[in-house]
Amino acid sequence: MEPTDTGWSWGWAGWGLAAMLLFWAIGAYNRVMSLRNAIAVAFAQLDTHMSARASVCAELLAVLRPLLPNEQATFDALDAAQQEVQTALQAVRARPYAGDPVASLGVASAVHAAALTRLMSMLEHHAELREHPELFAQVDELKMIERQRSFTRQVFNQAVGAYNEAIIQFPTRVLASFYGFREARSL
């Protein structure tokens, strides 16, 4: 009789262990999915500010082109950088947790920042533009949007960091590749 009792108790212990592992796997999956969804939410906020920046840059360029015909190269560089950012944003919107599209957006954003810095420097050197107060209102709005974008970029990077940390921790790391979770990239 003892062998039967031992077999019966090991059977229940095995089922209990299997159930515990199953519930752990489900919990780990839900935790990582929650963190991945937080990346998407953070990116949506960042996307809003980047779209607002694009709108203000377009308005600013429309005002500046007729006023400074000799600076068309600067305007064209900013316009091209803005188009690059918009193309990269389109790719990231589908999967903000994917590494390669976010890396492309990072490069496009760096190019855009350089072009925008050049434009702001140019504005400082043209004293005749002070006669156009609406122009400086747009510049102020652009500066405010840049500060907001910087903050939402930081929130996005923190969400990416929390997700990446979760998928490399043991024992979740064991299931990460099984579930198809890959490392996300920050901006």
TrEMBL record:
It is found in: Membrane. Keywords: Membrane, Transmembrane, Transmembrane helix. Its main location: membrane. The chain crosses the membrane at residues 12-29. One of its GO terms (cellular component) is membrane. The keyword Nucleotidyltransferase does not apply. It is a single-pass membrane protein. Pfam families: LemA. InterPro entries: LemA-like_dom_sf (IPR023353), MamQ_LemA (IPR007156). Belongs to the LemA family. This is LemA family protein. It comes from Kinneretia aquatilis.
